[in-house]
Amino acid sequence: MANEDAQAESELETMRHSAAHVMAEAVQSLFPGAKFGIGPAIEDGFYYDFDLPRPLTNEDLAAIEAKMKEIIAADAPFIRQEATKDEARRIFAGQPYKLELIDELPEDRVGTYRQSTFTDLCRGPHVASTGKVKAFKLTSIAGAYWKGLESRPMLQRIYGVAFLSPADLENHLKLLEEAARRDHRKLGKELDLFSIHEEAGPGLVMWHPKGGAIRRTIEDFWKDEHARRGYDIVYTPHIAKVDLWKTSGHWDFYREYLYSPMKVEEKEYIVKPMNCLGHILMYKTQKHSYRELPMRFAELGTVYRYERSGVLHGLTRVRGFTQDDAHIFCTPEQLEDEISGVVDLVRFMMKTFGFERYDLYLSTRPDKYAGSLEGWEHATNTLANVLNKMKVPYQVDPGEGVFYGPKIDIKLKDAIGRSWQGPTIQVDFNLPHRFDVTYVAADGKEKQVFMVHRAVLGSLERFMGCLIEHYAGAFPAWLAPVQAVIIPIADRHLDYARKVEAELKAEGLRVRVDSRTERMNAKIRQAQVDKVPYMLVVGDKEQASQCVSLRLRSGEDLGAQPLAAFKSRAKNAVATRSLEI
RNA sequence: GCCAGCGUAGCUCAGCGGUAGAGCAGUUGUUUCGUAAACAACCGGCCGUCGGUUCGAUUCCGACCGCUGGCUCCA
Fold first, then answer.
1. Average pLDDT over residues A402-416
2. Which of A329, A349, A397, A500 is 20 to 30 Å from the Cα of A9, by its Cα?
3. Can you tell me which residue has its alpha carbon closest to the C1' of nucleotide B3?
4. Distance between CA atoms of A323 and A518, rounded to whole angstroms?
5. Residue A33: per-residue pLDDT
6. A28 an active-site residue?
7. A453 among known catalytic residues
8. What is the pLDDT confidence band of residue A2, given thresholds at 50, 70 and 90?
9. CA-to-C1' distance for A500 and B26, Å?
10. Which nucleotide is nearest to A202 (CA to C1')?
């Protein structure tokens, strides 16, 4: 079974790669003189980079697609031929990018594939003939640097998606539509959650009352849970003297993300790009015994980083964001328990927010690193041990750790299967060394602490963006900005509606009355559009019997029930953070 | 930052070298209604900003700002 899957997988990948060649042939025939970069298969499809005499338009895309269909209909075989590098250089004369690739290949002989009149430098494999390229669609045009280097020319990249059957392609296109429907930028506007303003600056988020309600709920929950698990909640200022960042090394290594210093009484200050230094200073105000450790400082700390304008994106890539940060100071012996505690917290949080699936990655020591080899080994083993002991499956990313320590990254899968960068747990050998962060061990000697940075949600902005898309804006009751709308049928029911509102508010529920002079149907529609979990219809019947008629966001009409019954239902859903309403 | 596309009313979008339109939202009036949109009237735009071409620019050209898709990077 697994074998069949793997086979289908590689068949699909081969076909996608062949689709890239078909596209290249189409481009060659439509744009004689085109120069070719590379054209690999990627997740869901393929791309090819071209150097063309003019920018491509969407009309070109349609023309290329039509040409590709002709090529596929012609069903020309893919023919593999090996060539010496000299032969290859003759074949690809006039193709500077290909020549560059040939020069870089370690082998003496290189592979070429030809279909019809188009020949490409390629290791293969390919499908037997162009007719085997099945359901595909060209999706977008983008600029891409040759070899991803900003110093090299920018080529035009055409992306396409390709699948083994039209049904699969159709499914994929549906998924893209679904993703567009869930887009947090669109929903953020429609549900009145947040805004970003040109006047204020790109990448700077304003949380409106409704987004604010969600955020406060998350923050309160987060703080309570952290306090419960032995973290101390702390607060640090938004600016600090630049010297601090010189000591830490950020001024040298992280400069491109830092905002320019501002001068205050002849001293230079910067807006903080991270929270750790404040926590270190706090730790260092006293000498600490090993008996006091571990110490866990947690802060919802807002940081600012300069991001180039082209990379900003809704809530997921911004210039000011609030990390759900914490730093754990502990002894080497305590590291395992601490990591284990963090992983447990991560799992609890993910479950609570409704993420069932996630992938863990353990990133190990890169070539350039800070700290001692033993330290790295101890920390890396500890991270791996914890995951093994907790029976949490993970993948190793060799050499992908940050220079200051190994880390565990967790990628969340949302409701439609997309991955999001989520929790991260990083051991840091650099800062304790640079700031001389120590504790007094049992033998009376000062030792350097082990320091762990960790964020469970990542940043509130990005996490909320992810939540919005995960739930498509239909939040579970505990998170919903408005948990219930009370809908009076006629104006004479307003007083009763207000009474219901007051009672529910007294229970801490977020409710409001739709008092507009609208018909009930319009009010229900509005509540549906706003994705409010509970709608409480009140008319003559309900008023007489002290009831509410409960309609759920799902469309289910549960009929009249005593107000007390709804109260306990809603309170329970909120208190248990139920994912069901 | 780079490449490409886009920027028209609060929102979603039409339109166009002769000076701007729809739906929704908003306001007002009428309606008081039983599970996804009552009816009517009204209000609303320096057509992103700044230059240029033109008798005339929202429309064509350029620069800038912002957004979108990528490259690159990341919480």
1. 91
2. A397
3. A143
4. 43
5. 87
6. no
7. yes
8. very low
9. 28
10. B66
Instruction: Report d(CA A535, CA A546) in Å as an integer.
Output: 16
Please state the pTM of the whole predicted model. Answer: 0.93
pLDDT, average across residues A86-107: 90
* Active-site residue flag, A197: no
Burial of A285 (0-12, 13-18, 19+ CB in 10 A): exposed
Residue A516 is among the residues annotated as catalytic for this protein: no
From A276, A330, A466, A547, the catalytic residue: A276
Interatomic CA distance for residues A135 and A15, integer angstroms: 10
| Tokens 């429907």 belong to residue | A181
Question: Within 10 Å of residue A57's Cβ, how many Cβ atoms?
Answer: 10
Q: How far is the CA of A357 from the C1' of B49 (A)?
A: 47
Please enumerate in sequence order all residues whose Cβ is within 8 A of that of A348, keeping only pairs 6 or more positions apart, or say none.
A225
Same domain, A399 and A254: yes
User: Can A323 be counted among the known catalytic residues?
Assistant: yes
User: Rounded to whole angstroms, how far apart are CA atoms A406 and A387?
Assistant: 14
Contact A168, A136 (CB under 8 A): no
| Residue A1: band (very low, low, confident or very high) from pLDDT cuts 50, 70, 90 | very low
In a domain, A179, yes or no: no
Q: Which domain holds residue A506?
A: 484-575
- Strand B nucleotides within a 7 Å radius of protein CB atoms: 1-5, 11-12, 26, 30-38, 65-75
Residue A135 domain-assigned?
Answer: yes
Angstrom distance, A370 CA to B55 C1'? 72
Which residue of the set A28, A115, A156, A323 is catalytic?
A323
Catalytic residue at A407? yes
Q: Are the beta carbons of A159 and A61 closer than 8 angstroms? A: no
Give the whole-angstrom CA distance, residue A185 versus residue A75. Answer: 44
Give all strands (DSSP E) within A344-434, no chain letters. 357-363, 395-397, 407-413, 419-428
Distance between the alpha carbon (CA) of A526 and the C1' atom of B37, Å? 9
Structure tokens at A20: 């890239």
| Domain end (from A419, A439, A466) | A466
A494 inside domain: yes
